[in-house]
From TrEMBL:
Name of the protein this chain belongs to: Sulfotransferase domain-containing protein
Residue ranges that the Swiss-Prot or TrEMBL entry lists as coiled coil: none
Pfam families, per the entry: Sulfotransfer_1
Transmembrane segments: none
GO molecular function, one term: N-acetylglucosamine 6-O-sulfotransferase activity
One of the GO BP terms on file: sulfur compound metabolic process
Domain Sulfotransferase: from-to ranges: 83-188
Length: 268
């Protein structure tokens, strides 16, 4: 992470420099063009692309170095990793994104990383890990005031423009009208929603609630039992009947949650 934030791409491994999300970004267009990255790859092309990486790194640097803010989205990282970054660089800020574990496990089931027959062990591991991260977030917020912000995924889905404005203020930026329009198009414009890992959604709230249709009440009840401490901390609602679960007008979150966290929400 430190290498990415410092635009030190020469120190990165080939896997990181050929990661699809890196080379599909609009800000890395020149880099991906240099690699001649196709949408469909094969093993032969992958080898050729990796050989071309050293000659294309300068294009990455040209995009990275002039940027006012460098943003790094890290999936399944631990907050303990953020601690050393924040200590070594006073400019680093952390947005800690937390999602309802029922939605997380539903997504993992899509990728066959979650077994409906044994939801307890999966739920326990995930929720204990998130609780540990929350504890570290509280500690970091005290050690580095103003540099850690906690965000619930569901709040972004509910009010994407309003919460995004909070995120921009947190990092010292102002949201422009063109960006606001782009966010609306990505979350509420009725665009096709046929990709489980893509950022563009036909309706962000409906997408955030998708697990309520896909998971059985039996599975949801077991997740809730294993994650009740996390639910209390982060303000997630437990459903007691299948009718409640399937009634999408009943929200999955409460407005209030852990007061010890600096947080972004849909009400600010």
């Amino acid at each position: 992470m430190r290498n990415f934030l410092n635009c030190d791409f020469e120190s990165l491994d080939e896997g990181s420099l050929s990661q699809p999300h890196l080379i599909r970004s609009p800000t890395t267009f020149n880099y991906s063009s240099c690699l001649k990255m196709p949408w469909i790859q094969n093993d032969t092309y992958q080898d050729e692309m990796i050989k071309s990486i050293p000659g294309c790194i300068s294009d990455l640097k040209e995009s990275c170095r002039p940027a006012k803010v460098t943003v790094l989205k890290v999936i399944e990282a631990q907050m303990s990793q953020a601690k050393s970054l924040m200590r070594s660089d006073p400019k680093v800020k952390v947005i800690h994104l937390i999602r309802d574990p029922r939605g997380v496990l539903s997504s993992r089931r899509y990728f066959r990383k979650f077994n409906d027959e044994d939801p307890e062990s999966f739920s326990r591991d995930i929720c204990n890990s998130v609780l540990e991260d929350i504890g570290i977030s509280r500690s970091l917020s005290q050690t580095f005031p103003g540099r850690v912000l906690t965000v619930r995924y569901e709040d972004i889905a509910k009010e994407p423009i309003r919460v995004t404005k909070q995120l921009y203020r947190f990092v010292g930026l102002e949201m422009t009208p063109s960006l606001e329009k782009r966010i609306w198009e990505m979350t509420y414009a009725g665009l096709p929603d046929d990709c489980n890992i893509c950022p563009v959604r036909s309706n962000s709230t409906e997408t955030a609630n998708g697990w309520r249709k896909g998971l059985s009440f039996r599975t949801v009840a077991k997740i809730q039992e294993e994650c009740k401490t996390l639910f209390a901390v982060m303000g997630y609602r437990s459903f007691t009947t299948e009718d409640e679960l399937k009634s999408l007008h009943i929200p999955t979150t409460f407005d209030e949650y852990d007061s010890r966290l600096r947080k972004a929400d849909a009400r600010d």
